[in-house]
């Protein structure tokens, strides 16, 4: 920040205001970071648990990706219309509700 090369952020904005509440800013920044990381970690945990419990769901999603995309590239947004199972899979894995996607 002192060199002027830091990207603008929640924390840098508050610190630049020089309110003297550095400890409060530290706690607020920590809460923002922790909230975001625990949410992501929980979603990933749920996803891997679901893939362990429902390997047939993973196999069906992989089959659809292979059929639509083939090999040599990753799926992109233009593939979405041709991948209804994968679209539902992705939307519901973040909600932690994969059980209805059983084959």
TrEMBL record:
Gene Ontology molecular function, alphabetical: heme binding; iron ion binding; monooxygenase activity; oxidoreductase activity, acting on paired donors, with incorporation or reduction of molecular oxygen
Keywords from the named record: Heme, Iron, Metal-binding, Monooxygenase, Oxidoreductase
Keyword field contains tRNA processing: no
Cofactor: heme
SUPFAM superfamilies for the chain: Cytochrome P450
Top-level taxon of the source organism: Eukaryota
Keyword Cytoplasm part of the UniProt annotation: no
Pfam families the record matches: p450 (PF00067)
Signal peptide from the UniProt entry: none
Family per similarity comment: Belongs to the cytochrome P450 family.
PANTHER family: P450, PUTATIVE (EUROFUNG)-RELATED, P450, PUTATIVE (EUROFUNG)-RELATED-RELATED
The protein's name: Cytochrome P450
Organism field: Roridomyces roridus
Lineage of the organism: Eukaryota, Fungi, Dikarya, Basidiomycota, Agaricomycotina
């Amino acid at each position: 920040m002192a060199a002027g090369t830091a990207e603008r952020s929640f924390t840098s904005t508050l610190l630049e205001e020089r309110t003297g509440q550095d400890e409060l800013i530290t706690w607020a920044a920590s809460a923002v970071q922790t909230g975001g990381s625990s949410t992501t970690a929980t979603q990933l945990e749920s996803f891997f648990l679901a893939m362990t419990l429902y390997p047939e769901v993973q196999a069906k999603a992989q089959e659809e990706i292979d059929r639509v995309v083939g090999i040599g590239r990753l799926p992109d947004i233009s593939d979405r219309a041709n991948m209804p199972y994968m679209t539902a899979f992705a939307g519901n894995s973040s909600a932690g509700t994969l059980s209805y996607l059983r084959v």
